[in-house]
Design brief:
Radius of gyration: 20 Å
Strand content: under 5%
Shape: globular
Helix content: 40-55%
Order of helices and strands: HHHEEHHHHHHHHHHHHH
Number of strands: 2
Length: 379
């Protein structure tokens, strides 16, 4: 059976021949930057994975919605629109539309929909953790969508209202939010609430119409900044990379010197082949007792290459240039994906569960490479 990528190319060729168009003519008419990586194959992989996720029974939630996962849905929501210009697409794909429909429905029916994991079926404090996690994910997905259009929608305003109601304003964790814990690295493990807070900062800073400067959220944003800066230099490198991303979107989080410190630390952890390994960016014990792989992977490399660019690092800088080269060289020619493996236990890399880390890897590889393409065209 032909792969989705092969099918797309066959259909495209048939249409071109039927219209009497040569490939050379089409290439001259479509302003797509020649690249050594395959955006269409990456899009096919991401579309197929998100479409599968929404129909997977384990991802189903009430009111006909699906869970928004950090590994598959979040990255897809951020990365898939970045491919739109390169592929000549007029608007969102069906999987994008489905994901955004789920998010906006749950934002609108916030007091009616069940949490992702209710206390009654999973145990305390999963309702609180689910609400905090979902509020952040909803806000970052909708703010990212609105940023492309330049207007803050009513749905996104409601998402932020839900977010602020759940922020801790006193006691332990002041400035942050409850976050899901299932003992699964890196997104549902000890300390992962910092990842959530950094995403919240990204959402606030990304939202259009100067939302981050709104007077009514000034105090809450201040609490978030304080939370992110508490013991920042002692946090694992993955957290510091996320802090760098947050500071590139939300003003006045890090000083210039602090940013340069993180950038230097990131460069020091780069592997000889130009990539990074997510297992080396923190300390996570595997459930199967095996050591974490030292090999570079698409998630760590894609995330860091994207974050470095958002922080203002230019492509000629060797650390970034080598990372982008690694990404170009390590896209799977058959599937369009970038590889990353579970930090928790060995999984069949061909299985749906075994692809979760590769879903995130592919999304951030796309974000890094499309960011580089945009900056190249801008020059």
């Amino acid at each position: 059976m032909a792969s989705p990528t092969s099918h797309r190319r066959i259909v495209t060729s048939v249409l071109m021949l039927g219209l009497g168009l040569t490939p050379q003519w089409v290439a001259s008419q479509v302003a797509v930057r020649e690249a050594a990586w395959d955006p269409a194959a990456a899009a096919d992989y991401l579309d197929a994975r998100q479409a599968w996720w929404r129909t997977w029974p384990n991802a189903a939630r009430d009111h006909g919605t699906s869970c928004v996962s950090c590994h598959t849905s979040l990255g897809y929501a951020l990365a898939r629109p970045a491919l739109r210009d390169a592929l000549g697409e007029a608007g969102p794909t069906p999987p994008e539309t489905g994901l955004l429909g789920d998010v906006t429905k749950r934002v609108t029916l916030w007091t009616e929909v069940e949490p992702f994991y209710p206390d009654q079926t999973v145990g305390l404090p999963k309702t609180s953790e689910s609400r905090g996690t979902e509020a952040i994910l909803n806000a970052v997905i909708l703010a990212s969508r609105d940023a492309r259009g330049g207007r803050l929608s009513d749905d996104t305003r409601r998402a932020f209202e839900n977010l602020w109601r759940l922020q801790f304003t006193r006691g332990d964790g002041t400035g942050g939010w409850a976050w899901l814990y299932f003992g699964l690295a890196p997104w549902e493990s000890d300390g992962a609430e910092y990842f959530g807070a950094a995403l919240a900062a990204v959402a606030i800073g990304t939202a259009p119409e100067g939302y981050a400067r709104s007077n009514e959220i000034e105090e809450r944003v201040g609490l978030l900044r304080d939370y992110l800066l508490e013991d920042w230099s002692d946090r694992r490198l993955l957290d510091r990379a996320l802090l760098l991303w947050a500071s590139s979107e939300l003003p006045n989080v890090l000083s210039g010197e602090q940013k340069q410190t993180i950038i230097r630390d990131i460069g020091s952890a780069q592997n000889g082949d130009g990539g990074w390994n997510v297992g080396s960016l923190g300390r996570w014990e595997r459930q199967d007792g095996l050591p974490q792989s030292p090999d570079s992977d698409g998630y760590a490399t894609g995330l860091i290459a994207f974050v470095l660019q958002r922080a203002g690092v230019a492509k000629p800088e060797p650390t970034l240039s080598r990372a982008l080269d690694w990404l170009v060289q390590n896209q799977d020619a058959n599937t369009g994906q970038w590889w990353a493996q579970s930090l928790n236990k060995s999984r069949d890399p061909e299985s749906d569960r075994g692809l979760f880390m590769s879903d995130a890897a592919t999304a951030f590889a796309v974000l890094a490479l499309t960011e580089a393409d945009v900056r190249t065209r801008a020059r």
